[in-house]
Each structure stands twice: as C-alpha cells, then as structure tokens.
C-alpha cells in the first residue's frame, strides 16, 4: 500500500429511527449510500472502503455494485443506537494491519464530492508535517450567536459591527475525519486527534441527513445539480 493511500471507513447499520431504512432509502433514484460510494470510487488515494454493518442487505448490495469494498460484520457488543462512533472505528482499525491512515465518512453526506475528499486527504498529509495529527471537516459561520439565556457568544451587542467582520465560528459537520492509528490512540481512541486541522467546506456540500427534512433538501439539491450538468 502506498504511503499516502487512505482506507475509508463507512459505517452503516440496517436500522435507523428518524428516517426509516435510511441507508437503503432511494435518493435521487438509488439507495442513499450509493451517492457517497460513487464519489469514493473516483478517489485515487482511496485504497479500499470498509463498510461496518449489521445488515446483510447493505453488505450484499455494496459488494454487488462497488469495487474496493471490504465488509466488517458489526459484533453485537457495538450494535445499537447509542454506541459511540469511536468504538466502531476502534474495532475497524484494529482489524486492519496494513494501513496507518484512515478517513471516516457517512452515507448521510450525499453531496460530498470526490474533489473535496481528495483536497482534504492531500491537505491532511501536508498539515501532518506541520504538527497537525488529524483533520475534520467544518462549516464556517459569521453570524451573531447567543446562548439560550440571551448572552452573546461571539460578539458585543453594544458594537454592531458587520457580520462579515465577526470572528468566525466553526461547526463540526460530520462529513469527514482523517486520522492515523497513532493519533487515534494518542487521543484516547478518538477520531479527532489532540491537534486537529479544521477543514472548511461549502455549507451546501456539507449537508448531513439527520431527519426527513434534511433528506428532502439534500435530494432536491442533488437533482438540481444533475440537471445543471446534464
């Protein structure tokens, strides 16, 4: 395996609460997870895609339609709705001995493009030489934020400066996490290391499907994008 190749971790369980059968639900005519898989397949730096799942339907579908797929059957002790993603990552990377660098993403990021993935991977390897041990994607906000008790978070209400001049706040958008085995262990088994690089993304591309409204919005944008380039 080449030094700068990445193993992608794509965990997918069969059950989902807010959007039933979410991973296999048709999105723009195909199962939702096909969107991110089709982008990962185009990345030269991705050596393989590990799908950790408890679903035979998902596993069989992935092996049928995609290359570079490795199935990890999820053991019972890390199944369920309240298992930490870091526990699943820990299980996966301990089963892989020939790779030190990993990217974890989700089937719920259907607008994430292979170009952004490649930029992020290359950025990780560049910044890893500058003391950063990991990378995670964020969405940048320059707006006036408040705590629920009315206190200002990132601005002075007595000084109404332009929002574009405010110090930005970054939201972890759950699109991608890049790390090494060492950084994961050093951070007490966490995908975000002790000194992470924040990788800012286009907010439209960064949509993460958490509920039915997110699904409709992401699918609408995907259809618009397809029509725009057809």
Structural notes for this entry:
The chain is of the alpha/beta class and 230 residues long. It has a single domain (6-229), classed as Spore Coat Polysaccharide Biosynthesis Protein SpsA, Chain A (Alpha-Beta Complex), CATH 3.90.550.10. Helices cover 29% and strands 22% of the residues. The chain starts with 5 loop residues before the first strand and ends with a helix.
In brief, what are we looking at here?
The chain has 230 residues and is an alpha/beta fold. It is built from 6 helices and 9 strands.
Straight-line N-to-C gap: 37 Å
Structural class: alpha/beta
Name the helicity range: 25-40%
Please outline the major beta sheet: 7 strands, mixed
Radius of gyration: 19 Å
Strand order of the biggest β-sheet? 5-4-1-6-8-7-9
| Weakly predicted, low-confidence segments | none
CATH hierarchy, class: Alpha Beta
Q: List the total number of helices.
A: 6
Strand tally is 9
Tell me the number of structural domains: 1
Shape: globular
Mean pLDDT: 92
Task: List the helices and strands in order.
Answer: EEEHEHEHEHEEHEH
* Full CATH superfamily name: Spore Coat Polysaccharide Biosynthesis Protein SpsA, Chain A
Please identify, by name, the CATH architecture.
Alpha-Beta Complex
Estimate what percentage of residues fall within beta strands: 15-25%
CATH third-level topology: Spore Coat Polysaccharide Biosynthesis Protein SpsA, Chain A
